[in-house]
């Protein structure tokens, strides 16, 4: 196969970049020719003679809105000139004005805007007006990108539902969950002392960007008030200028909440706790939740967190609403009441995670490529329109 992958970055340090990285690695390992059209790539991949990197340098013009549109125009022009060189073109959401065979969807701006937790209002000033314009423009562009693809690949059931809400036929969807490194994230010896954590309590872990309220740490703190005193919470995330230490103090649980800021060695931290809690108000696909499963942690989450559909009663608890504070407290208390049960659920979580490894995810993409290339009518390659009409 000759595959073109269009993405801003192929990297190991963010979710979408890691998905692209694992797909490229699997393609190269299988002996396929890969061209990456993007801005950044892991240098080690460039050593493979089967890989070609065509760089579109990031524009120096201000704002992501302008930068992304310039990338979309430049990549679309390049694809128009080179389309016939490839068996299949794979893009990520709205990234180019060119048509594609596969569009992997990691986030749906339409879903985020309509989810009920979208925080931006026009009356909040110039910055809010820009953020609102950015969201609305991406809603418009994404819909056209989805319609222009032969197959749309949502990364979770939540994302699939949001894609269908934009008018895409369910028959054109092929869901593939993101993966997780089951070697890096795995059960093992605890490191509580290293992280300055107490040795005795039942430790819950919350990890996420504390600058965004949608991660819903406030609900976890309020729920902790109604749990037994031996249940403590570890919060991994930057605490600068965030309101949560003050909220924990106001709620009278400051002694049970351990803010440890950013953590470089998340696998070691996950091996040091007893369960993972993640009631995010909105999430397309939670990689940190998959990492917790791989680390043999039972998970307490909510249906609004993308990827929650993989969790069953054997390995966790999925609540209907992120605002169900009483339900969250009850689930946490139930887990903490029986540590042996929590460990058993953790082992079930680990077994589940092994079916969601990066390797298995990549093989699902390669199988989809094979199916699409085989299904294409003889002589049809390169005959589709090269760009999506802005007026369509």
TrEMBL record:
<dbReference type="Pfam" id="PF00534">
    <property type="entry name" value="Glycos_transf_1"/>
</dbReference>
<dbReference type="InterPro" id="IPR001296">
    <property type="entry name" value="Glyco_trans_1"/>
</dbReference>
<dbReference type="InterPro" id="IPR028098">
    <property type="entry name" value="Glyco_trans_4-like_N"/>
</dbReference>
<feature type="domain" description="Glycosyltransferase subfamily 4-like N-terminal">
    <location>
        <begin position="14"/>
        <end position="183"/>
    </location>
</feature>
<protein>
    <submittedName>
        <fullName>D-inositol-3-phosphate glycosyltransferase</fullName>
        <ecNumber>2.4.1.250</ecNumber>
    </submittedName>
</protein>
<dbReference type="GO" id="GO:0102710">
    <property type="term" value="F:D-inositol-3-phosphate glycosyltransferase activity"/>
</dbReference>
<dbReference type="Pfam" id="PF13439">
    <property type="entry name" value="Glyco_transf_4"/>
</dbReference>
<feature type="domain" description="Glycosyl transferase family 1">
    <location>
        <begin position="190"/>
        <end position="351"/>
    </location>
</feature>
<keyword id="KW-0328">Glycosyltransferase</keyword>
<keyword id="KW-0808">Transferase</keyword>
């Amino acid at each position: 196969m000759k595959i073109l992958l269009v993405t801003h970055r192929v990297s190991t340090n963010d979710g979408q970049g890691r998905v692209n990285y694992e797909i490229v690695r699997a393609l190269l390992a299988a002996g396929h020719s890969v061209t990456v059209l993007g801005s950044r790539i892991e240098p080690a991949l460039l050593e493979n003679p089967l890989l070609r990197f065509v760089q579109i340098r990031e524009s120096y013009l201000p704002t992501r809105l302008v930068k992304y549109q310039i990338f979309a125009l430049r990549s679309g022009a390049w694809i128009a000139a080179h389309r016939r060189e490839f068996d299949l073109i794979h893009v990520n959401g709205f990234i180019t004005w060119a048509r594609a065979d596969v569009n992997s969807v990691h986030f749906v701006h339409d879903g985020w805007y309509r989810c009920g937790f979208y925080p931006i209002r026009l009356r909040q000033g110039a910055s809010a007006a820009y953020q609102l314009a950015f969201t609305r423009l991406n809603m418009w562009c994404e819909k056209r990108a989805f319609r222009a693809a032969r197959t749309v690949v949502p990364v979770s059931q939540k994302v699939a539902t949001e894609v269908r809400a934009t008018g895409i036929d369910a028959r054109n969807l092929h869901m593939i969950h993101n993966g997780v490194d089951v070697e890096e994230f795995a059960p093992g010896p605890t490191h509580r002392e290293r992280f300055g954590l107490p040795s005795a309590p039942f430790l819950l872990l919350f990890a996420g960007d504390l600058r965004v309220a949608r991660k819903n740490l406030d609900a976890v703190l309020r729920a902790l008030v109604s749990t037994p005193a031996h249940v403590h919470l570890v919060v991994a995330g930057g605490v600068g200028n965030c309101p949560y230490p003050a909220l924990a103090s106001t709620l009278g649980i400051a002694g049970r909440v351990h803010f440890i800021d950013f953590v470089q060695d998340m696998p070691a931290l996950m091996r040091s706790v007893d369960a993972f809690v993640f009631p995010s108000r909105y999430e397309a696909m939670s990689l940190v939740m998959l990492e917790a499963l791989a680390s043999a942690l039972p998970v307490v989450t909510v249906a609004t967190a993308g990827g929650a559909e993989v969790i069953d009663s054997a390995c966790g608890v999925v609540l209907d609403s992120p605002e169900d504070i009483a339900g969250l407290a009850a689930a946490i208390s139930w887990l903490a009441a029986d540590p042996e049960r929590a460990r058993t659920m953790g082992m079930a979580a680990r077994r589940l995670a092994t079916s969601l490894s990066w390797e298995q995810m990549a093989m699902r993409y390669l199988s989809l490529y094979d199916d699409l290339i085989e299904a294409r009518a003889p002589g049809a390659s390169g005959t589709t329109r090269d760009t999506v009409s802005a007026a369509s």
